């Protein structure tokens, strides 16, 4: 249960093709994250899987049956929406019960499932409240509860944490991860936040303009980005991408070095530059370096503290084995 | 902003308007009350005097009163049911994307801009007339006897005319309410396995409850005092078949020349309107709380 495969799936709105032919396999029990900049088609892809949008062509298979033309309710998937999409006039209990009620389940079985879900999600005290009386995090949990009771073969999450504040987001991130470990159900999660993608995913799908740029585990994407886009998108702060003569020295059109893969010195090093802004986070220091002659602003990440003042001259040395090389098409050179 | 000074300045500046509004309302009300306790018949204007509650007695025991009361309630209720039900259906229809949406929406709203007298006359002469009306023509075309709407079913005909006038209002308010429904909620319900009918019943209708309340409250206020449509079509007849309270008050004071009894009827109408208002607020007012 919970295996989804997309075969040559496309989606056009009028003349605009937002998703060119696309293949993707999602294995049972996997936590898959679709990540990409806004407008990259990740939400559309999720809605295609959910059945809320019709595919223009191609086949979507869920558990080896063709689900391309099935209505959303028949696909056995549950979705958690960005706005939570709770029914405002119903109590929490009725919200969670709604899919069961629509399925015509008898009252006793409904109550058992609702109580189990409420206990799992810490909602027992709120069952008789309306969504309007709950905090953002609680609403999120109700939305998840409504998805859980259906016992779907896969969960779909559409940017579920983007309406929460930073602290709550970290907490909910953990809760969803733990839920996945507990239920071992396939989950597909859409986000534009690469930190969410890196921390939660078993498999990340990086999308740009409807095209899958790379599929892989978080560390695979970090260590071996397939192209320049993935290299620049995964990792924070962003990878420094250097073009021109310096890249040619390494036999590439572009070379990339992550901010954390450089050492710094006041007296000697490979590259010379002037310190712009230094951001002290305590555990790390981000230094923005100008006038390197390589790129506008080079970002440098140093563990711990360093004495660096605006206008200081510093020298940077990349760790050669961590250098990424890309050809003129932006693809990774091995 | 709200210092002592600015507050008193605001009060002074708002006073003239408040005073004018108050006078506008209170003077006619007081005069109606005054006349309702006086004998004042236009045919014998010299014989005036206080008569206590005799005008009220006459008005309430008038055989036309009971039928007028029932007619008023039937008229209000009938129009409310028709406009709310059709309004919801039309609003859902207009919410669907289709070509020429803008023009169709304007056309739907159009009847609201037609004056009551004019629209009632159009209906009476162009549609319902048993000789020249379109309905009669249609009936004759299929070999049926033309139906004389305004004399056979006067109240129902008036309900039809008034519903036609108020349907755009209901549709418009309900349409804006439907447009504010979060599409993700509908999608969530779809994923939860709700059929189209269930989605309407469990999601759309509860979402519309507040708008429906507004439509019912506003329309009730206006429908209790329907007058022009009756005057230009049936004149309250045949008999008292289409006489409502407003029309009865008019008939007493200006057709029977009894201003005293007409005024008493006016006061009775005010009291009844308030009873209806209290009843309505009790019944559906809670929908207006957020």
TrEMBL record, chain A:
- Domain named ABC transporter is located at 4-234
Classification from the root reads:
Bacteria, Pseudomonadati, Pseudomonadota, Alphaproteobacteria, Rhodobacterales
Tell me its family.
Belongs to the ABC transporter superfamily.
GO function terms (MF aspect): ATP binding
Q: Kindly provide the name given to this protein in its UniProt entry.
A: ABC transporter ATP-binding protein
Which keywords fit this entry according to its UniProt record?
A: ATP-binding, Nucleotide-binding, Transport
Automatic annotation (TrEMBL), chain B:
| Entry coiled-coil feature ranges | none
Pfam families cross-referenced by the UniProt entry: BPD_transp_1
Q: Which Gene3D superfamilies match?
A: MetI-like
Q: Which residues cross the membrane?
A: 12-37, 68-94, 106-123, 155-178, 208-228, 264-284
InterPro entries listed in its UniProt record: MetI-like, MetI-like_sf
Superkingdom to which the source organism belongs: Bacteria
Q: Which PROSITE patterns match?
A: ABC_TM1 (PS50928)
**Domain ABC transmembrane type-1 residue range list:** 69-280
As for subcellular location, the record says: Cell membrane
UniProt KW Cell membrane keyword: yes
Presence of keyword Protease: no
Record's bilayer topology term: Multi-pass membrane protein
Q: Which UniProt keywords apply?
A: Cell membrane, Membrane, Transmembrane, Transmembrane helix, Transport
Q: Which family does it belong to?
A: Belongs to the binding-protein-dependent transport system permease family.
The molecule here is called Sugar ABC transporter permease
**Taxonomic source organism:** Parasulfitobacter algicola
């Amino acid at each position: 249960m919970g295996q989804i495969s997309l075969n040559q799936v496309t989606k056009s709105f009028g003349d605009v093709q937002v998703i060119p032919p696309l293949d993707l396999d999602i294995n049972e029990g996997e936590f898959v994250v679709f990540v990409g900049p806004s407008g990259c088609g990740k939400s559309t892809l999720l809605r295609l899987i959910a059945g809320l949008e019709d595919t223009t062509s191609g086949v979507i298979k869920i558990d080896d049956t063709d689900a391309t033309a099935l209505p959303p309710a028949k696909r056995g998937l549950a979705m958690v929406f960005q706005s939570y999409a709770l029914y405002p006039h119903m109590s929490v209990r009725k919200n969670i019960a709604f899919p069961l009620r629509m399925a015509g389940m008898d009252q006793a079985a409904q109550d058992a499932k609702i109580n189990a879900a409420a206990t799992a999600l810490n909602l027992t005290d709120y069952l008789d409240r309306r969504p309007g009386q709950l905090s953002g995090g609680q609403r999120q949990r109700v939305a998840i509860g409504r998805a859980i009771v259906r016992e779907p073969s896969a969960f779909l999450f559409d940017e579920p944490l983007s309406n929460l504040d930073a602290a709550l987001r970290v907490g909910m991130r953990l809760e969803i991860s733990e839920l996945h470990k507990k239920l071992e159900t396939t989950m597909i999660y859409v986000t534009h936040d690469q930190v969410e993608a890196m921390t939660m995913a078993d498999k990340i799908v990086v999308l740009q303009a409807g095209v899958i740029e790379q599929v892989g585990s978080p560390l695979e994407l970090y260590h071996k980005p397939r192209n320049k886009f993935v290299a620049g998108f995964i990792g924070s702060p962003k990878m420094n991408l250097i073009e021109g003569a310096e890249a040619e020295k390494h036999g590439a059109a572009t070379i990339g070095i992550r901010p954390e893969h450089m050492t710094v010195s006041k007296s000697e090093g490979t590259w010379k530059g002037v310190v712009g802004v230094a951001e002290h986070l305590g555990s790390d220091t981000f230094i923005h370096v100008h006038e390197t002659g390589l790129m506008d602003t080079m970002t440098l990440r140093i563990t711990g503290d360093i004495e660096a003042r605006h206008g200081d001259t510093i020298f940077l040395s990349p760790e050669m084995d961590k250098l990424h090389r890309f050809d003129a098409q932006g693809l990774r050179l091995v | 902003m709200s210092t002592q000074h600015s507050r008193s300045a605001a009060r002074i500046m708002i006073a003239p308007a408040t005073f004018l509004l108050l006078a506008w309302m209170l003077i006619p009300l007081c005069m109606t009350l005054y006349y309702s306790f006086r004998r004042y018949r236009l045919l014998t204007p010299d014989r005036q005097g206080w008569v206590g509650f005799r005008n009220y007695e006459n008005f309430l025991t008038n055989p036309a009163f009971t039928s007028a009361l029932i007619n008023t309630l039937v008229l209000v209720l009938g129009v409310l049911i028709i406009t709310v039900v059709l309004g919801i259906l039309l609003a859902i229809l207009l919410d669907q994307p289709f070509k020429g949406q803008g023009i169709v929406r304007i056309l739907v709203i159009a009847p609201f801009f037609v004056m009551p007298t004019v629209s009632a006359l159009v209906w009476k002469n162009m549609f319902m007339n048993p000789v020249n009306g379109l309905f009669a023509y249609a009936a004759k075309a299929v070999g049926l006897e033309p139906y004389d709407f305004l004399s056979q079913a006067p109240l129902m005909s008036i309900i039809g005319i008034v519903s036609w006038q108020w349907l755009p209002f209901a549709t418009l308010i309900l349409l804006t309410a439907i447009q504010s429904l979060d599409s993700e909620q509908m999608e969530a319900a779809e994923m939860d396995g709700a059929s189209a009918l269930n989605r309407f019943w469990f999601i759309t209708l509860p979402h519309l409850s507040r708008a429906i309340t507004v439509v019912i409250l506003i329309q009730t206020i206006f429908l209790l005092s329907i007058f022009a449509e009756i005057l230009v079509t049936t004149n309250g007849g045949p008999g008292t078949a289409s006489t409502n309270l407003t029309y009865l008050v008019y008939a007493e004071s200006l057709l029977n020349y009894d201003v005293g009894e007409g005024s008493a009827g006016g006061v009775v109408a005010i009291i009844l309107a308030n009873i209806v208002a209290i009843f309505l607020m009790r019944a559906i007012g809670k929908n207006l709380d957020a």
